[in-house]
């Protein structure tokens, strides 16, 4: 289907075991594991007291995650070149480490004590403070240590990116996309923080945040980064951008739906969390828009109330269904999926079918 | 004195106006100002709601600082090549932006409300939350927003570094040093946080933290980064490392002395802060080691006590003088200065005299 080159290792990943995602995930995990072990050794050499930081970060990375972002880097490269190169696993792993950094800082800002079924990094470092018998406030040590652990992983993401032995102009192109990805996610996170406190937030405000902190960050920029490692092609770049923005926003909308209406046993996330945090999702904003005065009173009282009860949450969920907000978001999701499918129509296989499969993984999920 | 090359712009900086530091600082400031204006425009294009973030960061950078780290990058390059190149101002500015990031996160961890005579970034964003009439907890919005603003500047530091149009192998060498610098400062900051809670901290523990979070970060790595942009020379690298570690640790010791014994009107820092934070400086650790039981009782009661009074602080200062800890640290400083002078003995001018002058600025200061 394409010209064989010296870096063509199609047998390595085509067809990949465990679907498009599984095939990349296992190999990225191997890269991450080796890389993190080396960083942990370096930290221990600097000072054995740094071990709890390395341990907490390694535990978080090992505890899973779908490795969706690395898969998009991988398939962006594949779409651009038609072949595979194991060196691409390093920038792909870098994007996963950047996500690890974002989760660590996020859990501090959201005051979430757990992540992926483990203590969040700031919780683990608080516990270390207590176990080691250090003096001072363990909670604040956890916050400070967590900020620094996140910053450390941020640097590591960069180091893993730079470890890739790829042509230096390709690296320079991809580095620019990586810079853009990182600036946008920070901007999106800040706007999200602000949105929670915005009295007159609109569906448009919410969609813009979803595009920056999720669409661009999770799908579009990883795809473009992979493509940039392969070459320069404005047409492909536009295709990946249209596909990525649609799938990425859909990914966030699915996340919002699961956070509010999903089964906590499957999502691993307390169903009350998003409500107590006061997340202004499209779901909530549309419900508020369509609500009766009585329903609106409930929404205003419960959403963003850190003391909201399970009964309160049930009432909000019922309103989201009764106002048609749940259906409204599902319809929007269907439209985004159609946009995404159309965008990659002219790509050839296996890239086209891999991207469609990744879109399914991102959007049609229950966890 | 050296071969003229096309990138030789000796007239630009030799002799520099305002001393070795002033000459670089003005030019770095111009680079930073232009760069930050472009980033602020980009943020405003993404969403006008991002303006308070850009404003707070720009205000902090504009409020000053000695631009000591950029000067070390500049003179590292000069020592390696004998000439100057305006492109070096970009990596030099990147090191200053990285320092800005560190200050923003530091002020959150230390709960410092002000910096350089202005509201700290997290304070400015808290104030914005109140003025904009957002709902929710303004303090926590400030913390979250400050973490994200810091993360944003971290990305910007990288972008400014990458903007330098220098030979790609030189950039690759310097990038490795920049990675090392960033990992070390995070490690040093964590160890410093931990040191504050360590019941049996020793002078050796304190010196190791000073080496990582200050010596390497402020002097050695910036110098080596500049040198790496110029070429590869193991002898010069060793010279800069010996000089840098000595000056850098001395810089931190001077900071500790000024923080405890300096004039708050000159240092711009409340004299109580370091005592309340419980900083385990060489000064405090040596005093504790030499203290009578009565003096030790005072130190244990006051250092790290967030409610310590001015009288408590005066008592601690008196003990630091009476136990000979102040003299002990001054003697150590003199030794480090001698090590630094000896290290650069064989370098030729103007690099040698510039480095000695920078060492003076770093160590023999009253603010």
Automatic annotation (TrEMBL), chains A, B:
GO biological process assignments: isoprenoid biosynthetic process
Domain of life: Bacteria
Transferase is among the record's keywords: yes
InterPro entries in the cross-refs: Isoprenoid_synthase_dom_sf, Polyprenyl_synt, Polyprenyl_synt_CS
Keywords: Magnesium, Metal-binding, Transferase
GO function terms (MF aspect): metal ion binding; prenyltransferase activity
Cofactor(s) listed in the protein's UniProt record: Mg(2+)
Recorded family membership: Belongs to the FPP/GGPP synthase family.
This protein's name: Geranylgeranyl diphosphate synthase
